[in-house]
């Protein structure tokens, strides 16, 4: 039976074949093998639609063993972090955060077969109203939509551009380093789309030390993908301005329009996120050694809240 998948553009099709070992004729058998394995894991309840599972196969370059591990981590970490993943409804809080335009996925990727570009801008992010946890929660909802909707992201990865010009110091003061560390582990071990780079611009001098601390908590593979630039001009030598939105002098959409489109899409996922609680892991049923936060995230010391003079 042919899987129910979106056809790929010619550029992405050739990248999937050359870089991800995707063989079109073999995909149905790969999906069947994965479902067969899932059926034998009493502790793990996962979504099983074709487009979702193929996102994991692509993220693991079609290695079945790696895909199993990634799916397991995806649901294990979600179950271990109910404060973030247990309350992901399409609710007023997420819609209000969406409407601030703090985090947008830009319509044009970085070249036809290139990675998806995502932009964070803290200008309208009010730390009295939102915490870092709220932003991460919203970002995971976006990235989960991308597993099913965004072929560029699934095949060529994604790049984060973070503009810190309007970052408020009270937001820096409430940074939660345990959470940042856990999200780094999630990005590396659980998320099927691959993070190709984090480009930070306009970092306030008070933020540099905190940024270095946050970076040091990331898995080493991700640490190498962090790049810091003084300003937009420096960034544009790496990512041409045309790939940024109009507000940044580029031609990659207007943030207000991108936001309106993202809102329509998020509303269409209302049911998806409402069903989410039925998926996850039940450690009591896991054969062999049970998994807990220490075994996934490493032993976490407590990070004191940092004093910023």
From TrEMBL:
One of its GO terms (cellular component) is membrane. InterPro entries: CRAL-TRIO_dom (IPR001251), CRAL-TRIO_dom_sf (IPR036865), CRAL/TRIO_N_dom (IPR011074), CRAL/TRIO_N_dom_sf (IPR036273). PROSITE patterns: CRAL_TRIO. Residues 134-256 form the CRAL-TRIO domain. It comes from the Eukaryota. SUPFAM superfamilies: CRAL/TRIO domain, CRAL/TRIO N-terminal domain. CDD domains: SEC14 (cd00170). Pfam families: CRAL_TRIO. GO terms for molecular function: phosphatidylinositol bisphosphate binding. This is Alpha-tocopherol transfer protein. It comes from Drosophila kikkawai (Fruit fly). The gene is LOC108078092.
